[in-house]
């Protein structure tokens, strides 16, 4: 699988009363991974503040397939699943997989770039953001829109 990947560890506080990873932890891990990826591609908080723009999400959905418990060795794999040619709108997919590549969950976000001063979608998308999204591997079922 070609993607940005990261090994995850879970804390006792990440578990629910059934002793598996709480649903909201998946969302937190995915958000953290997206921001780490953007940061590694030159889009960090300082750049967002200086250029007055940042990512905004319209939809966030997780489909759970197999429970994850504290002792599981799990990796998050992140790809771009859908993107407009100008990178103004995009979907990013996060797959949570075991060491044996068993799919545990898929979390998908749909988003765009927002002008943080005007509080509306930015047009045109800054080149640094376009280049960052183009640098993230595409999913096997990538859709260009």
Automatic annotation (TrEMBL):
It holds the Pfam family 4HBT_2. This is Thioesterase. The lineage of its organism: Bacteria, Pseudomonadati, Bacteroidota, Flavobacteriia, Flavobacteriales.
């Amino acid at each position: 699988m070609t993607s940005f990947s990261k090994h995850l560890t879970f804390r006792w506080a990440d578990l629910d009363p059934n002793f598996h990873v709480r649903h909201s932890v998946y969302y937190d891990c995915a958000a953290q991974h997206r921001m780490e990826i953007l940061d590694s591609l030159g889009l960090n908080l300082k750049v967002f503040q200086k250029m007055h723009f940042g990512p905004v999400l319209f939809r966030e959905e997780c489909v759970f397939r197999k429970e994850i418990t504290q002792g599981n060795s799990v990796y998050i794999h992140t790809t771009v699943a859908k993107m407009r040619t100008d990178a103004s709108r995009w979907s990013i997919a996060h797959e949570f997989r075991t060491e044996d590549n068993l799919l545990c969950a898929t979390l998908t976000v749909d988003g765009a770039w927002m002008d943080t001063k005007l509080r509306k979608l930015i047009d045109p998308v800054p080149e640094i953001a376009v280049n960052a999204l183009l640098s993230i591997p595409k999913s096997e079922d990538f859709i260009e829109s």
